[in-house]
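Subject: Sanity check before I submit

Could someone independently write out the structure tokens for this chain? I want to compare against mine line by line before I put it in a report. The sequence has 101 residues.
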Amino acid sequence: MHTTYQPSVYEQTVLTIMRRLPPECALQLVDFARFLEFQTTEKCDDWLGEEEAADKPMAEIKPVVSVSKPLRPFGLCAGEFIVPNGFDDPLPEHIIQEFEG
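---
Independent answer below. Compare away.
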């Protein structure tokens, strides 16, 4: 007698979600599933498959390249607006109530 495999509710849900996703998102779902599998098994060979694990590096070490932007010079908008004298004063109560409800 041949028994038919019946997927669990979780498997059906994941498959339904995966079918609705665009390919790049489905790939992210597969990657996340592999990540969870790796977390629970802690075996890289099981995660990638033995052939893939032998051919793929686990990580790539690269130097961090920082791109520093030049500082903006002071006074670019000099004379275009005036900051009022009471700019740093506490807000009136009715404005505070507008924010806090």
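---
OP: Matches mine. For the report I'm noting this point. DSSP finds five helices and no strands in the chain.
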